[in-house]
Amino acid sequence: MFEKKNLVVNCDVCDARKVDEESLAGYERTVINADVILVDDRSRSILNKLPMVCNTDGMLSVEGEVSVINTNGNYEISGNTQLKDKTIICVNGTLSVRSGTEKVLENVVKIIVNGSARYPESMAPFMDRLQVNGTAHCIPDGCIELQSEFVIDKYFPLRARQDGKYYVEDKVVLTDADVDVEALAAKNIRFLTERFVVREEYIEKSVGMFEENVEMDVVPSGFGFVGEDAELSEALLQRYGKCLYIDGDLILKEDSESFFEQVEKILVNGDVRLLKRQETAFAKVNAVYKELVYVKGRYVQNQPHMVVDEALLESTPDGLEIKNCAILEVKKDAKPELILERLAVENCGKIFCSPEQKSVLQLVCKNVAKFSDKEKENDEEDEGIMGMIKKAVNSKVINADTYIL
Fold it and tell me: Is the Cα dihedral 154, 158, 162, 168 positive or negative?
């Protein structure tokens, strides 16, 4: 029934240097999905002759023996790392490169990181072989690396090194009233970071710890500091007081209006997320913020499957917001005008809807992979299932970390 099969190879590293033209010629088509494909002059010539699809971030020409290290999680290259000649390193996680590893990196042909990579400034000239699908951080030499958001507590002045240099990727927060700032300043330490959040009364004693170009946000004296997004509630006011500095977004819930009169002042370093009907009342609150962002009254997230119908939309007069839903089914009775008024969708894999609903849904949706007409899809289901069976029968699939073609 089926004369030739397809060959599908899914791997991190595909070594195609030993490829045999005769063996691959027996396949209808060869598909290679890999981070990197290793070739030489001979194999490249063979691959170009064959019916082949290569989905790869790079095709690397390599002669001689090559060792492959494939790891999930964290991987460190230090002075103690032993590598064979010509090594390819694949990391699904975090790569850390230590200073003084120049000799080790001489043996590295390629480093592929799906995640994040960190290396000291002195090693930057050796990072031309580094490919990062994620984020890469170059850390100044001689720095001690701390958490990306470092909050100075009362114990840090005791632990800090004399004349120490500290690298903090995002921000340093100095708002704790129990910190002995004088003792910390006496240690002559330096922070290298993007942002410094400091209580007003600590500025003079602490500003010398930071570079002149650091972004500095000052928390006024008497304000409670909230270091993340916060909902306006009784619990928030009891814990932090009536004057608030929020280093994130302020979120107003349906009952938040009852606390407006208790607030003296709010400084928001982000946006205020509120219902449209709350705008007039919130305008009377002494608040400073970036923008007002209108949200729906009911919020649902991280659902594998959801159904929205007219009854659900009618029961949510302040609207319904759905986020991170794999499959969303919009019933035919949900009128387009009601969808436009009350529904918001973000990050959805697939939405089943009628053709009449699709145009309206496109206005209220963000990041939707596919819109489908379920009735039409059901009609085609039998044909689709047979197609998948035929494809599976007619394909040889290989899944591996490293594969020699």
Answer: negative
